[in-house]
Amino acid sequence: MSNEDFAKLLDDDLDQIHIAFQGEYKEEIEGLLGLSKEEIDKITPDTTDLEIYDKLIAVVRRASANNISQAELKNRIMELGEVAVAISKRVIKLAGLFI
C-alpha cells in the first residue's frame, strides 16, 4: 500500500469519526470510550472482550454517522453477541436499549 493510499484511508476514517461524534449516538460513543479496561475485563478475562468492544464502538459510530434507528442499533449490537450486550449495558444510554 502506498503512502498516498494509506493517507486516503486514514482521512476517510477520521472523517467518519468526526461525523459519528456529530450524530445521534454521540453520548453513547462517549460512554463506551469512557469505559476502563478493568470494567471491560470484568465481563470476560480474555482478550475476546476487547475485540468485541472495538467492534461495538465501530457499530455505534457507524449507527451515529448514518442516523440508524435505535431498534436497528440494538439488533446490530445483539448480532455481536452476549459480550457486546454486556458491555453496552455498562453505558447508561445504551443500557436503555435492552430494558
Q: Which key phrases capture this entry?
A:
single chain; 74% helix; mainly alpha; globular
Q: Which class best fits the helix and strand makeup? A: mainly alpha
Mean pLDDT: 90
Broad shape: globular
Described by strand count, sense and barrel closure, the largest sheet is: none
Q: N-to-C SSE series? A: HHHHHHH
End-to-end distance = 45 Å
Total domain count:
1
Give the number of helices.
Answer: 7
Query: What helical percentage do the residues reach?
Result: over 70%
Determine Rg (CA atoms, Å): 14 Å
Low-confidence residue ranges = none
Give the amount of beta strand, in percent: under 5%
Beta strand count: 0
Task: Classify the oligomer.
Answer: single chain
Give the topology.
Layout: H1 3-22, H2 26-33, H3 37-41, H4 48-65, H5 70-80, H6 82-88, H7 92-95
Helix pairs in contact: 1-4, 2-4, 4-5, 4-6
Task: Kindly summarize this structure in a few lines.
Helices cover 74% and strands 0% of the residues. With 99 residues, the protein is an all-alpha fold. The protein has one domain (3-98).
Please characterize this protein's 3D structure.
This protein is mainly alpha-helical. It has one domain. 74% of the residues lie in helices and 0% in strands. It contains 7 helices and no strands. It has helices at 3-22, 26-33, 37-41, 48-65, 70-80, 82-88, 92-95. Helix 4 (48-65) runs antiparallel to helix 5 (70-80). The longest helix has 20 residues, at 3-22. The model has no long low-confidence stretch (mean pLDDT 90).
